[in-house]
């Protein structure tokens, strides 16, 4: 019997069906990259109930993904310093196009769409000039490279769109790298991480770390519906870090969230996410094997839970969902956790939610 996916794909190819939606791809709530036991790599769609809805082959290890806001299409990004970004039809499972980073560039593994899905924005390293750039791709006309602009710093890693707007917020990690040096960090003594806010391709505001904490590389972001930005950081200093999680609101300084002892995190936050009610921030450390919960109202660590190789995190019903490199999908509800194994899959660093950040909490 012809599968529903194949039937829909045939209708779409024949032009006999209306435009597909994410429902035709099984209605995933999350996207994430994974490695399979045979050494291959895939992009997976995961339901709100933690079922694996699809596995789509990738040409190499993936990092994060961007989900188109209207159609069932995703862009899977290579892990830094990768140069591919694959546009995938999540109904048929077929690649639409493979984007290649321009000469003397590589992707940083993250990207996001404009509010209407017309444009795709990608974080890139102009490694010959030691500058961060944001690539602009015309998603309405076959993902043609249309423009680029400054990220406002060095080492742009993650970027998000603020709810209800096309304002971008960019995590400039501050670390200069070059493919000829592998993943070596070339400027630790002089690094200057910042958050940059961009409107119409122009940096309109930046927020930097205090000078004494300039070795706290801003890497990953989560955005609340009120526009508040959670920051996950990676410490490059020789002393204990001052903090590994922060909060920022436009027009203000970065607020560092406090914890009694950060040494078990090993200076490394892999992902951050708000819980569904946005009262807490989840911060994961695959190196430390910890999931931390910070109270947004007090700015202090509320509690933490040990989970080996925990990294990907996203808001989910009742709290959050966390993925691990050991192949677990961990539902987090308050201080309770429920881990579901996924045999044959080891999850990569990030879990991308398909929730609509422009809508009220529901």
Task: Look at the structure and give the mean pLDDT.
Answer: 93
Query: What is the strand tally?
Result: 28
Alpha carbon gap, first and last residue: 38 Å
Please identify the structural class as seen in this structure. mainly beta
Largest sheet: 4 strands, antiparallel
Q: Indicate the radius of gyration in whole angstroms.
A: 19 Å
Categorize the overall geometry: globular
Helix share, percent: under 10%
How many H/I helices?
1
Roughly what fraction of the amino acids lie in strands? over 45%
Question: Which regions have little confidence, pLDDT < 50, spanning 5+ residues?
Answer: none
Helix-strand topology string: HEEEEEEEEEEEEEEEEEEEEEEEEEEEE
Order of the strands making up the biggest sheet? 3-2-1-28
């Amino acid at each position: 019997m012809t599968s529903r996916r194949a039937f829909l794909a045939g209708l779409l190819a024949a032009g006999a069906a209306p435009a597909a939606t994410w429902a035709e791809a099984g209605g995933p709530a999350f996207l994430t990259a994974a490695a399979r036991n045979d050494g291959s790599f895939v992009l997976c769609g995961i339901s709100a109930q933690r079922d694996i809805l699809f596995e789509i082959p990738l040409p190499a290890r993936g990092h994060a993904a961007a989900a188109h806001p209207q159609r069932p299409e995703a862009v899977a990004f290579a892990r830094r310093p990768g140069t591919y970004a694959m546009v995938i039809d999540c109904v048929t499972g077929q690649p639409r196009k493979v984007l290649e980073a321009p000469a003397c560039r590589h992707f940083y593994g993250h990207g996001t769409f404009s509010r209407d899905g017309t444009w795709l924005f990608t974080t890139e390293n102009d490694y010959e000039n030691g500058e961060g750039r944001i690539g602009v791709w015309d998603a309405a006309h076959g993902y043609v490279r249309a423009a680029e602009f400054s990220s406002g710093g060095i080492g742009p890693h993650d970027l998000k769109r603020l709810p209800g707007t096309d304002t971008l917020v960019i995590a400039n990690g501050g670390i200069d790298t070059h493919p000829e040096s592998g993943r070596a960090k070339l400027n630790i003594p002089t690094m200057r991480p910042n958050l940059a806010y961009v409107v119409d391709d122009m940096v309109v505001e930046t927020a930097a770390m205090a000078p004494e904490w300039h070795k706290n590389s801003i890497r990953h972001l989560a955005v609340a519906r009120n526009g508040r930005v959670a920051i996950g950081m990676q410490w490059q200093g020789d002393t204990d870090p001052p903090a590994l999680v922060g909060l920022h609101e436009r027009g203000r300084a970065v607020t560092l969230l406090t914890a009694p002892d950060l040494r078990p995190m090993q200076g490394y936050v892999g992902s951050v996410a708000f819980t569904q009610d946005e009262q807490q921030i989840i911060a994961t450390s695959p190196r430390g094997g910890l999931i931390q919960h910070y109270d947004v109202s007090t700015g202090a660590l509320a509690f933490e839970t040990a989970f080996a190789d925990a990294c990907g995190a996203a808001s989910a019903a009742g709290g959050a969902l966390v993925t691990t490199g050991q192949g677990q999908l961990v539902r987090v509800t308050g201080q309770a956790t429920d881990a579901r194994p996924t045999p044959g899959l080891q999850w990569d660093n990030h879990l991308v939610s398909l929730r609509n950040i422009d809508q009220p909490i529901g």
